[in-house]
Specification:
Layout (H helix, E strand, L loop, with lengths): L1 H11 L5 H41 L3 E5 L8 H8 L5 E11 L1 E4 L2 E3 L2 E5 L1 H7 L3 E5 L8 E4 H7 L6 E5 L2 H4 L8 E10 L3 H6 E5 H8 L8 E6 L16 H13 L10 E5 H4 L1 H39 L1 H9 L4 H32 L1 H10 L7 H4 L10 H27 L3 H6 L2
Parallel strand pairs: 5-10, 7-9
Antiparallel strand pairs: 1-11, 1-12, 2-5, 2-11, 3-4, 3-8, 6-9, 7-10, 8-9
Helix pairs in contact: 1-13, 2-11, 2-13, 2-16, 11-13, 11-16, 13-16
């Protein structure tokens, strides 16, 4: 093995010739392929982390709703009971309904969120850009992007049209005129343009819900990653199980034993987002691995070129008694070392690009190429995170494929008849 490694390294020494040029191009191909795969995986991982952080920051970790879809009576008393559950840090009754908002003939259809101002500020870090988070006296708080689209400011009045105008045939519901008391900024387009906050009383009037009731009860916990919802036949555990127990005790099951409430965690409510990101990441990784496969074929070509150039040496070595296995290992190691060098350079190139990724995006923006628009992705910067286990998987896969691809041309060269090999010029 030492002799095989010695010859493999000897053949890799740069010389003026076709083999040296092809070798450099092969290493460069592996470098670029590995770097692209790692960069794409890191960016998709960053997107997943960012969405998860945004969800955990601006959405409830646990939501209690009625199993029948109706309103929950006594939601305030349920919140007081939930706040006594160990691990629960905040709780708030909420009413969500889609409404139409009009100002100066400009109309939007945001989600109206009725809640208690003091409770909701304990749950979410709401940053105010203008005014205050004041829901008293029919006040409404809107996002910064919605304020720009409607061209409204603090003190302006919005006309809010209730969905009861559509579902009710017996009564006519006039639009509510609500003054804007504050403008918030969350850094996410979805929230800054699609949500408005009002008091519970206003939301009940607009949604046609009786006093004291709410659509759901939102709960925030100290450790959202540790939530264990019910999976198949396995019951819920920890905070989720305790929340379910309190809700079941508060709202008794019906005559048939069916639960009156349904407890959902953030993993269940936003499962489709995480599944979509994971699926796209796997598909992109699979497709981009073909770049590495093409680079590996280039490595195989260098083995073919070097075996043609070293035909006489192969014949001489076989005549001296070297086995086919040892000669095969020379060229397998020759290709394997190329891949190893390419993988190493690819890791360095990937880290270099990732650490300067936002600068590259900003530079392309100055050239008129908006590769990461906030309006589409709802994020201010391109996120990324490298997972060490994924880097190991890519590196091992490329090196193993390279070693396997090198076996056939290496074996064919090593199995030549020494007499025929020595006769070739």
């Amino acid at each position: 093995m030492r002799f095989s490694l010695f010859l493999a390294l000897k053949y890799l020494r740069p010389k003026r010739g076709v083999a040296s040029v092809v070798t450099i191009l092969s290493i460069l191909g592996v470098t670029i392929g590995v770097a692209i795969v790692i960069i794409v995986q890191a960016v998709f991982t960053g997107f997943g982390d960012t969405w998860q952080n945004k969800i955990l920051e601006f959405k409830p970790h646990i939501v209690v709703r009625s199993s029948s879809g109706s309103a929950l009576p006594g939601a305030e008393r349920l919140c007081q009971s939930m706040e006594q559950v160990p691990g629960v840090t905040a709780c708030a009754p909420s009413i969500e309904t889609r409404v139409l908002v009009e100002y100066d003939r400009r109309i939007l259809a945001p989600v109206l969120l009725g809640t208690d101002a003091a409770r909701i500020q304990k749950m979410f870090p709401i940053r105010m850009k203008d005014g205050a988070f004041d829901l008293t006296y029919d006040g409404v708080v809107i996002g910064v992007d919605m304020a720009d689209m409607l061209q409204v400011g603090v003190g302006d009045e919005l006309e809010v049209y209730s969905p009861m105008n559509v579902v009710s045939n017996d009564e006519a519901y006039l639009p509510e005129r609500l003054p804007v008391t504050g403008i918030f900024s969350s850094g996410q387009v979805e929230f800054d343009s699609g949500y408005v906050f009002v008091s519970l009383e206003v939301a009940r009037d607009l949604a046609g819900i009786e006093q004291g009731a709410a659509n759901s009860v939102s709960i925030k916990v100290a450790d959202p990653q540790a939530l264990r919802p019910a999976l198949g036949d396995q019951p819920a555990m920890g905070v989720v199980a305790e929340v379910d127990r309190v809700a079941s005790a508060f709202y008794r099951p019906d005559f048939y034993g069916h639960k009156a409430t349904k407890v959902s965690t953030w993993q269940e409510m936003d499962q489709m987002i995480f599944n979509a990101v994971a699926t796209e990441k796997n598909m992109m990784t699979l497709l981009l691995m073909f770049i590495c496969v093409v680079a590996i074929f280039c490595v195989v070509n260098t083995i073919i070129v070097i075996t043609v150039q070293k035909t006489n040496e192969i014949g001489l070595l076989k005549a001296l008694g070297f086995s086919t296995f040892k000669l095969t290992m020379i060229f397998v190691l020759y290709g394997w070392i190329q891949c190893l060098i390419g993988v190493t350079f690819g890791l360095g190139l990937a880290y270099l690009i990732l650490h300067n990724l936002q600068n590259i995006v900003d530079f392309l923006g100055t050239l008129g190429m908006d590769v990461f628009p906030k309006a589409v992705y709802g994020l201010d910067a391109l996120p990324w995170r490298v997972v060490p286990s994924e880097i190991v998987q890519v590196a091992v896969m490329v090196v193993c494929l390279c070693a396997l691809a090198s076996l056939l041309p290496a074996w064919r060269a090593a199995s030549m008849n020494p007499v025929d090999a020595l006769r070739k010029e």
